[in-house]
Design goal:
254 residues; mainly beta; 2 helices; 10% helix
Length: 254
């Protein structure tokens, strides 16, 4: 499981960055620390040179756990769990429309939570969208386990989607809200241990269809975690607030 301490993760991130030196030799490895995820393996930093015409053109640094395979990148630290961003572990996400909860096999469970902002680069007047990211760790689950993320009551309706995401929304006189879920496309299923099985007016349900730990996380980033995102805006912020919000949510999830 991932550490719940922002301070520990900041310290860990800095310890990775300290190992990134362009005087490192090709293939050279450095031991950083024990893995903060599995607490068993060691985090290894490996340097690779890109050489052209006998000269080093660039350096690549791969940082990973030699036991559980977790990949660490100092810029994104697993793009799907926002490992390098301040985060919390919470029991439910309060929204203007009620609480979003996560259930595994019908039981409420805590989940990792962080915030990401989005600005529409093509529209200067568009509002900044604050997205509330819900990360659900699948690494300890088994085939047949069911995961649900959403509300206790019917609130949502289908809004939009693309190849890898589905967006449901709800609104009242003053506000609009979207909840976006990752939906593995048919050619992604070999790289995922889960499938989206349920799309209701309450939220989204997943099912574990293969052992999460059979995947090599050095290749399959979304094999052991699934993320959902929620955002809400007041309607008077921008005439097309729903379009801006939809774009932000589908970009971060899909």
């Amino acid at each position: 499981m991932y550490t719940n301490s922002v301070e520990k993760e900041k310290e860990f991130l800095l310890s990775i960055l300290e190992r990134f030196h362009t005087n490192r030799g090709d293939g050279e490895t450095a031991l950083i620390c024990k893995c903060p995820k599995c607490h068993i393996g060691s985090v290894i930093c490996r340097c690779t040179h890109d050489i052209a015409n006998g000269k080093i053109q660039s350096w690549k640094f791969d940082v990973y756990c030699d036991n559980c395979g977790e990949i660490f990148d100092p810029e994104i630290i697993r793009s799907d769990i926002f490992f390098n961003r301040p985060h919390k572990v919470i029991d439910e996400l309060e929204t203007p429309f009620g609480s979003i909860k996560v259930r595994i096999n019908g039981k409420n469970v805590p989940f990792r939570y962080c915030i990401k902002t989005y600005d529409d680069p093509e529209e200067a007047l568009a509002p900044t969208v604050t997205m509330h990211i819900i990360d659900i760790d699948l690494s300890q689950l088994k085939v047949g386990d069911e995961i649900f993320c959403g509300f206790d009551k019917d609130l949502l309706e289908y809004n939009d989607g693309d190849e890898r995401s589905l967006l449901y929304s709800c609104e009242n006189e003053k506000q609009i809200m979207g909840l976006c879920a990752y939906d593995p496309y048919e050619w992604d299923l070999d790289n995922c241990c889960f499938q989206l099985k349920e799309r209701t007016l309450k939220g989204f349900g997943y099912c574990i269809v293969s052992d999460p730990n059979q995947f090599d996380e050095k290749k399959n980033y979304q094999s052991k975690i699934t993320s959902l995102a929620a955002a809400w805006l007041t309607k008077d912020e921008y005439n097309d607030a729903d379009l801006v919000m939809n774009l932000a949510l589908t970009c971060v999830i899909g």
